[in-house]
Q: What sequence folds into this?
């Protein structure tokens, strides 16, 4: 629930409940430490903890362009899980994850002789970005009898996003505050469900998800015309989102499975609600092949920074015109075929169509703006007044050819052919910012067992990854000279939003690993090569206000990462 795309259900694995294991890894990009093992072998309880610290400072010292100009990203994270099964009160697990990251892209540090381009920060600005997060939770499952069991998840998470942007004097010696933001979101989450098997053919699952969101949004920007800071958001509050659901699984025979249900949402901040029917059918034609069909109505709450955006009136008071925005909604249709045509190889074909409606668009002017394009860049472009009147459509075909690891090798090839379109308040159909039209990924791996003795085991492995896709989307523009400011600016042709498609993306990664298992521990030496052919993949562009020219900024080129890992 509360999503129209990009949904993943990820779970942290349990630690080894039979023996202790320790991990150490070091490379040019940082280091990693880990440990896991049993707490009580008889009851199967275990722990797992992992810490990573990463910096690309070593590559910067070696003169390797990281694609972030003078900025070097730093980040670290810690994760853990404690699993306690088989108690008289059920199975318990406690988990946690925390991460810190920051980057300073300061033009005041730039070597003007090298004239290094900073796509993120921009000429004449010092930019600092900070992103921190943490989550801790509890999972509990309880078996009532042979037909009924329950699952309970409780968690709390916190996210902080902070930006400091300062403009610089011409000689880069003085700083002037330009933009500040500090967004903090804390979520308290609960999900309870009961599964019960009514008969051999019928099974029901029902429950509810509740989220309590506590938010603090503060940001302001310097208004050159009025020579003052204009407050964009300054809100503290909380909001409840409740999502009850009911699923029914019916299996009339061994070949046919039908899953149907209904999901509902109610958002207490503005009274938004939805009731969403869903159904999926899977028919096993043979023991190795099946077809599936599905339909679902899905909804998503518009992000709170947009709903709470403030507009300053002539009397210097503020209003929040977007607080009553409706959910973004979409109808999903999917049909697929899955064929296991060899013991370790399968082919999967899936066609889909998604119709999106009630997307946020400009409420005051007829233009191409749509919230469906947000996330394509680091900047959130938002009209002061928006309404839920936009539409969109995604449709295409996905093919997957997969060989599971057997006889020392595996491969995975996926191809997606698709179209992604939308309409803003202008009623004109445009490509979205994400309409690459085709994406292909290929993975291949091979292991060679050099020796397999009682005292030692040696393995040499090769892994390759190839990614190819249509290029980024762009909106046409014209460079216009402003004699008042004595500089150029870009005039965008919004009637042709995202009409242009830049050149295709291509990247090949290769890794070679040698693993030695001896004396009760495993050592691994590896060389990872990213962007093997040093392909010039476009990340964005940099507009020169002095000349009106544009230069492309490219993603990371060829990079070689040696690493060493030990497990015992």
A:
């Amino acid at each position: 629930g509360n999503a129209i795309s990009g949904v993943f259900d990820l779970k942290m694995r349990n630690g080894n409940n039979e023996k202790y294991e320790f991990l150490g890894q070091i490379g040019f990009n940082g280091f990693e430490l880990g440990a896991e093992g049993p707490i009580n072998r008889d009851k199967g309880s275990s722990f797992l903890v992992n810490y990573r610290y990463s910096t690309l400072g070593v590559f910067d010292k070696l003169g390797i362009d990281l694609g972030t100009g003078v900025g070097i990203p730093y980040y670290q994270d810690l994760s853990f899980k404690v699993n306690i099964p088989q108690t008289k009160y059920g199975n318990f697990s406690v988990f946690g994850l925390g991460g810190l990251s920051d980057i300073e892209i300061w033009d005041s540090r730039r070597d003007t002789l090298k004239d290094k381009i900073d796509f993120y920060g921009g000429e004449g600005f010092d930019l600092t970005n900070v992103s921190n997060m943490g989550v801790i939770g509890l999972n509990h499952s309880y078996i009532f009898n042979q037909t009924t069991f329950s699952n309970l998840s409780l968690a709390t998470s916190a996210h902080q996003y902070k930006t400091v942007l300062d403009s610089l004097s011409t000689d880069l010696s003085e700083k002037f505050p330009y933009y500040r933001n500090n967004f903090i979101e804390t979520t308290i989450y609960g999900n309870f469900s009961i599964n019960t098997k009514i008969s051999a053919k019928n099974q029901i699952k029902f429950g509810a998800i509740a989220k309590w969101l506590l938010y603090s949004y503060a940001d302001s920007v310097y208004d050159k015309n009025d020579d003052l800071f204009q407050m964009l958001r300054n809100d503290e509050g909380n909001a409840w989102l409740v999502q009850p659901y009911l699923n029914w699984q019916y299996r009339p025979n061994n070949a046919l499975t039908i899953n149907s249900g209904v999901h509902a949402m109610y958002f207490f901040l503005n009274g938004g609600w939805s009731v969403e029917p869903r159904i999926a059918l899977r028919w096993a034609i043979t023991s190795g092949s099946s077809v599936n069909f599905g339909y679902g109505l899905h909804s998503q709450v518009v992000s709170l920074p947009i709903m709470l955006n403030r507009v300053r009136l002539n009397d210097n008071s503020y209003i929040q015109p977007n607080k009553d925005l409706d959910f973004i909604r979409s109808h999903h249709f999917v049909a697929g075929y899955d064929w296991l045509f060899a013991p370790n190889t399968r082919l999967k074909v899936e066609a889909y169509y998604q119709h999106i409606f009630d997307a946020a668009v400009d409420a005051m002017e007829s233009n191409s703006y749509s919230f469906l394009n947000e996330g394509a860049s680091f900047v959130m472009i938002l009209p002061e007044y928006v309404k839920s009147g936009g539409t969109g459509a995604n449709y295409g075909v996905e093919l997957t050819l997969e060989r599971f690891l057997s006889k020392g090798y595996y491969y995975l090839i996926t191809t997606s052919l698709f179209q992604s379109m939308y309409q803003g308040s202008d009623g004109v159909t445009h490509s979205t910012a994400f309409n690459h039209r085709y994406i292909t990924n290929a993975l291949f791996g091979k292991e060679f067992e050099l020796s397999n003795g009682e005292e030692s085991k040696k393995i040499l492995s090769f892994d390759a990854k190839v990614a190819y896709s249509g290029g980024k989307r762009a909106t046409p523009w014209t460079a216009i000279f402003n004699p008042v400011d004595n500089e150029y600016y870009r005039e965008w042709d919004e009637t042709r939003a995202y009409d242009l498609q830049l050149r295709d993306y291509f990247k090949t990664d290769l890794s070679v690993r040698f693993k030695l298992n001896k004396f009760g521990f495993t050592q691994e030496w590896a060389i990872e090569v990213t962007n093997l052919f040093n392909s010039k993949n476009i990340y964005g562009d940099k507009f020169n206000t002095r000349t009106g020219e544009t230069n492309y900024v490219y993603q990371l080129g060829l990079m070689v990462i040696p690493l060493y890992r030990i497990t015992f």
